[in-house]
Each structure stands twice: as structure tokens, then as C-alpha cells.
Amino acid sequence: MRAAVLHEIGQEKLEILDDIEAVGLGPGKVRVRVRAAGLCHSDLSAMNGVLPQPAPFVPGHEGAGEILEVGENVTRLKPGDRVVICWLPSCGACPACKRGQTELCLTGFMNAGTPNFKRSGGDVFGFAGTGTFAEEVVVDAGCAVPIPDDVPFDIAALIGCGVTTGLGAALNTADVEAGSSVAVIGCGGVGISAVQGARLKGAAEIVAVDPVASRRESALKFGATKAVSPEELADAKQQVTGGEGFDYVFEVVGRSATARTAYENTRRGGTLVVVGAGAMDDFLQLNMFELFFDEKRILPSMYGGGDVLSSYERTIALWRAGRVDLAGLITHRVPLAEINEALDQMRTGTALRTCIEI
User: Fold this and answer.
1) pLDDT tens digit string along 178-207?
2) Global confidence as pTM
3) Backbone torsion region of residue 342, taken as left when φ is above 0, otherwise alpha when ψ lies between -120 and 50, otherwise beta
């Protein structure tokens, strides 16, 4: 079986190997033939060590495909079912799940510590307990979510992470108020999804902020009312809000520097939503007086901040109704053999989302 493997943290390129085996099928597990995968910036963050991940590993956590085989005690899935991979399944029994905060369930994170691939040289992990840059993957049955027949695999793959995260940040976490002003800092696939979410909620002004001109142009097509470079954000703040600051600012980069910028561009009493996944040693500095005096809400958004399965269903309904554009997010397509080209597209910002055709 073919898969793209990172041998050591810090390497910039993946190696395509054909001697990988998907392992671990047993009670409660399923084997999935991956048909499409999306490249998310979190994959790069795991490769360079920003996000913790044992190596060697197969990156990829956005994916969709078909069930090939099911293990014992799996009753809701059968071979041939079309599924999207959910890298953060809920167990339904932990305190977070019982409170209704299923996005905080740790089951998926526990999966990341168990290898689900192997080759002659030893075990190989799958990123976030999945590893969708492979022809097949074995995951918990809860990680395989059935999708309707009318949802293409490439669209389903995006729903598996980036779209759910961005839309959910606006719809669930922020619950953007109609008529409000919004700024989105970082306009890749997740940021553009946050733009679409803010538009769905009726935001009057949506300012997209990104250093890459092509991404700024794309943001306007997806609902942003203004698109600026980071250097132009101060002027946009003055023009749109009279200098007061935005009602909502979404930080979709995952760095303390941009989070600080987001905080400073949020109005007093406004809401900063932290969407980007950053490093454990990257600290955001805020002083105690400004926290008290500004009364700004700081809301982290984990995987869209809501029930994942409900979010999937909502996104599919919105897509069917033409209320969100998912196909337009896919700006590039490459076969698995050219995965390193996709990595370059992500690093340079030329792609919103690259579909890996497997």
C-alpha cells in the first residue's frame, strides 16, 4: 500500500512508500479506502514540530473514502459505506461529552499515540490518530462518519476539518450578531470558511486580512466586504469602525503575534476568537489592567466549538442549499505521488485547499 511518510520531525518533504500496511483492525475498528484528502496547515505544523506528533508518521487528517472492512462489534457501518474521516470522535461517556462539549473529548487525542501503520522498519503513526495521506487507514468506528451519496469525496474531506472549524468558529463559538463588524486574520481554507460563516450570520462588514494577494482576492469572492494586507489593517479599522475596533476578530494563524494584533483590533467589549492551532511554547502576553479595563471576550474555538456530527450535517445542508461554497475552496488538485507539490502550495499561500487524489 502507498502512503506519504515523514521520517523525522523537521523534515520538509514526505517520502512516498509502497510498503506501508494499515494495521489495528479489530473490535470497534474499521478499514477505510481513502479516496480524497485535504491538506490542512495543521499537517505542516505537525511536520515542523509546532504540534506534538510522534514520528515516523503519515500526515493527513482531512479525508473521505469507502469502508473496506469492519471489526467485531461494529454495527452501524458496513463495507461499501461512504464516509468522512473525523479525527476528533466523541466517546459519549466522558465528562466533556456528557456536558454536551463533544469537541473537547480526548478520545481522538488518545488515538494519536497508537501506531496504525507499519512497514518492515517498524511502526508508523497516523497524524491525529488518522493519517489520510495513504491509500488505506484503520481507525475507530467513531472516526468514520457516513455521508450521503450526493456528497463528493473531495467536498466531504474538507468538511472533515477545515470547513467545520472555520464555519463553526463563526456560527458556534462567536455566534456572530447580524449587522456586526468582523475581521478575519489568516485567509486560507479555515479563514475563508470563517468568512462564509460570518456572512451567513449577517455580519455587515467582513474584513479579510492576509499577506497573500490571491487569498485576499478569494476572500472577496466568498463574502468579505474588504480585503487588506496586514500592513493595511490599521487603516481598515479606521475606515470600517471609526477606529473603535471590530465587534469580532478571528485569529486563524496560530501565532501569538497575530493573536496580539487581533486583540488590539477588537473593540472594547468585543470578541476575539482564537481558531489557529499554535505551539505550546508560544505565549500570548496580556496585562491584567487591559484584561479588566477592555472587557474583551477571548474565546478559543476547538474544531468549530460545537458538536462535530451536528456540524457536519449542518454544513452539508448549507452546501446543498447553495449557502456555502465548498467546491470553490479547492484551488489545486494533485495525486498522492505529488504530495510535496501540495506542501509547497500551502507554504507559499498559493492554495486555499489542495485536494490530494488517492
Assistant:
1) 999 999 999 999 999 999 999 999 999 999
2) 0.95
3) alpha
